[in-house]
Amino acid sequence: MRAISILEPGGPEVLSWQEAPDPVPGPGEVLLEVAAGAVNRADVLQRLGFYPAPEGAPEHPGLEASGTISAIGPGVSGWSVGDQVCALLGGGGYAEKVAVAQELLLPVPAGLSVIEAAALPEVACTVWSNVFMLAGLKPGERFLVHGGGSGIGTMAVQLAKQHGAETVCTVGTEEKARRCVELGADQTINYRTEDFVQAGEFDVILDNMGAKYLDRNISALAPGGRLVVIGLQGGTKAELNLGKLLSKRASVHATSLRARPLEERAAIVASVRENVWPLLEAGIVRPVIDRVLPMSQAGEAHQVMESSGHFGKILLKTGES
Ligand SMILES: NC(=O)c1ccc[n+]([C@@H]2O[C@H](COP(=O)([O-])OP(=O)(O)OC[C@H]3O[C@@H](n4cnc5c(N)ncnc54)[C@H](OP(=O)(O)O)[C@@H]3O)[C@@H](O)[C@H]2O)c1
């Protein structure tokens, strides 16, 4: 098969589309003939050498993919050769083939193409597990997501709104603000010119900035509020004012999806299938796809992501590349 290899830590030019050994599905795994993979911020970190693949995961980048099952390993039940699926991966999505544990598969939602489905597993699982399973966002609560125009943000805005939360997001441009309102955001805050702490108190905050926003995020929490940090774009170390946290009876969580044991990821995928998939199949929530590039142009896709030139997901398709 062909796959994207990271030749050495560095810029987008180190992503090379080249021959690689075909994966072989082990017990409980299927082989996926990849139609498309998707780009995540974590892939940029992996390319730079800061976020190596967890033990046992393929070396090639790519945390999600969609395609057709072409072979079945021993002990797989409920999936067949020819099924069109998408999958949450520990790595290996930037490739023509990838072996996936059966528990991490999801069917292509009715009404969506197999390519479109590549935009879903990582954002649906991250948002669902953090905002709903962990932080327990309830109807009528106020929700803030930083980076409303990101892959994560576009899913978080839609799901929070659909669940009856008052939904606010930060964005870097007026164009992204307009598009987030189209997705259901009740209010947007331009992080370049406005301070989100002035926008009232929030019951749940989904944060991508880490250290840079920690203190202001806690200031912005309502009594009983839940801050969930999933990204460290603004650094890893900051002072935590426990007094402020204590007086609000608030909590701070920090989580990573990729490093979780298979059983935990499987439970998240099952909950996403039960709770998010019906909304996708009803057309109430949709994947937001900025562009689809050939997988051989993964470097160009990373450049777009690093310059924040996208809204939603960037996909990489295997055909004609
Ligand atoms: N822990 C996990 O399991 C997990 C899983 C998936 C993703 N993540 C994290 O979630 C975040 C989003 O991932 P993604 O793949 O969807 O990335 P992405 O599409 O590249 O989005 C990055 C976002 O950061 C925003 N941003 C930049 N500077 C900001 C600032 N000062 N204040 C607020 N927002 C700012 C950008 O906003 P503009 O474009 O408007 O400038 C953009 O929306 C990343 O930090 C990623 O690492 C974590």
Shape: globular
CATH topology of the largest domain: Quinone Oxidoreductase, Chain A, domain 1
Largest sheet: 7 strands, mixed
The CATH superfamily of the largest domain turns out to be Medium-chain alcohol dehydrogenases, catalytic domain
Rg, please? 19 Å
Runs in which pLDDT lies below 50 for 5 or more consecutive residues are none
**Terminus-to-terminus distance:** 12 Å
β-strand percent reads 25-35%
What's the total number of strands? Answer: 15
The chain-level structural class is: alpha/beta
Account of the protein in words:
InterPro entries: ADH-like_N (IPR013154), ER (IPR020843), GroES-like_sf (IPR011032), NAD(P)-bd_dom_sf (IPR036291), Quinone_OxRdtase_PIG3 (IPR014189). Pfam families: ADH_N, ADH_zinc_N_2. Keywords: NADP, Oxidoreductase. The chain is α/β, with parallel strands linked by helices and 321 residues long. The chain has two domains: 2-119 and 258-317, Quinone Oxidoreductase, Chain A, domain 1; 124-254, Rossmann fold, CATH 3.40.50.720. Helix content is 29%, strand content 27%. It is built from ten helices and 15 strands. The protein has helices at 41-48, 114-117, 121-134, 151-162, 174-183, 211-219, 242-248, 262-275, 277-281, 298-306, and strands at residues 2-6, 15-19, 29-38, 64-72, 84-88, 97-101, 105-107, 142-145, 166-171, 187-190, 202-207, 221-229, 251-254, 289-294, 313-317. The strands form three sheets. Strands 3, 4, 5, 6, 7, 14 and 15 form a seven-stranded mixed beta sheet that branches. A six-stranded parallel beta sheet has the order 10-9-8-11-12-13, sandwiched between helices. Helix 5 (174-183) links the parallel strand 9 (166-171) and strand 10. The chain is globular. The mean pLDDT is 97. Bound molecules: NADP nicotinamide-adenine-dinucleotide phosphate (NAP).
